[in-house]
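Box 4.2: Ligand-aware structure prediction
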Amino acid sequence: MPDTPSAPAPVILGNEPGSFPHGVLAERHPAIIRQVREAFPYDPERQRALDALLANCTEGVIEPLPADAHDRERWTAWGMDAYVGRSWFDVPWLWAESHFYRRLLDAVGHFGPGAWQGVDPFRPAKLAELDAPETDEELAALDGLGDLPADEQTRALLHGSLWGNRADLGFRLSTSGTGTGTGPGAGDETRALVADDSDALWSLLAPSGTDTSGTDTSGATPSGAAASGTTLSGATPSGATPPGATASRATAPTSAPTGPGVTASGPGVTASPGPGVTASGPGVTASPGPGGTATGPRTLCLVADNAGRELVPDLLLVSHLLAQGRVDRAVLHVKPYPYYVSDATTADVLDALRRLVAAGGAAAAYGRRLWAALTDGRVTVRAHPFSCAPLPYADMPADLREEFAAATVTVLKGDLNYRRLVGDRWWPPTTSFADVTAYFPGPVAALRTLKSDVITGLSPDTEAALEASGEQRWRTSGTHALIQVRR
Ligand SMILES: O=P(O)(O)OC[C@@]1(O)O[C@H](CO)[C@@H](O)[C@@H]1O
């Protein structure tokens, strides 16, 4: 039985030398500044600003944003005044880390005015990843996907999206020896799912016409467990053929295996919700269930994380869910400006979409289907300011709360979004995921590769197995992942 927290656990800070959060602030951020500086021929003024940030973020204190900053009021509302004058290491790690990226954009002149206005300091690394041979291989594998049984097709695309989260450029800066790929055979093979609520996710996203009374009659729950599945529609999408669609071979993402000791239906897989939490929990208005309601379409809100080799599988999954009739529309939440090195912006969505369409084969079919869905409004892209807030989602503004409440399910991708969803705290690992997400309006799911200390929703057996595994860094090394759902 998951543990119900009696009180919020302590907030994670970066003030303990040798701890992971401390290392991110003290080592990774300086490395990112150096990486950015080397990626562009910045003029002397920009170089001086980068040097000043390097000194400030490692040895200085948090300073207020410039008086003329376009978003100064917003950051004041996000708690800046309380932290000004304090060491970066003594405020919530989430806040410090998030604020660092805002200051980095100031240093490179991203908000202008001037020649560097709007230039993404992480774009060279993003494009290099998108154009990497591994991406070709992953896209070409899509051609074989249609030959797999339906449940494996759907599971492969879900796991492609899940494990694509490992392709995080900022993460690679300080990860050595554990591989950098996102598919089987790439990097370490001890990857494991520490929680897998896939069945609950598919019960929310059942194909239209599926009996979702609790007995799945359509075989539409392609979870880890053997299950017949619906046929992946390979229909060539209708809609305008996007410009630049030229044929070329590519490969597709593949699902990572569940690792030893923990299986898709293994110990510790807790189907949320936990006790006392229901989809109509506090502050939650009933959301349209599978099949939608008379008042609205079945909508997936996908809160994206990284660009490139994570965003491509995310787009494939959205395209697939639309084709299968599991959703009627999708809202893709991206960042309003460059963030956390890899985080996706609208420009990155367009780059990924063009990469799909130009790849030829099945990848191009997915890309064209998505292009058509964007042009006819079934898919929309949102870049809400709160997506770059240094705060937990518990502090989300009303308009975002209403949007998530109206969705059939909101899926949050990646580690940073998980930290914001559950609260970046030292929760006991067996803390109920349903309880710490009870505030979230509407059903919510997390697809996350573990890259930081926070964790919830594990069973005692799974926690014991992980602690006994001898893998000291199972929380932060990207070798483990989770699929957690609160209906
Ligand atoms: O959200 P992502 O891209 O999956 O991971 C981002 C992140 O969790 O990775 C690092 C921890 O390894 C943190 O600096 C940062 O918060």
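In the box above, the bound molecule is 1-O-phosphono-beta-D-fructofuranose. Confidence is low (pLDDT under 50) at residues 170-190, 212-220, 223-241, 243-291.
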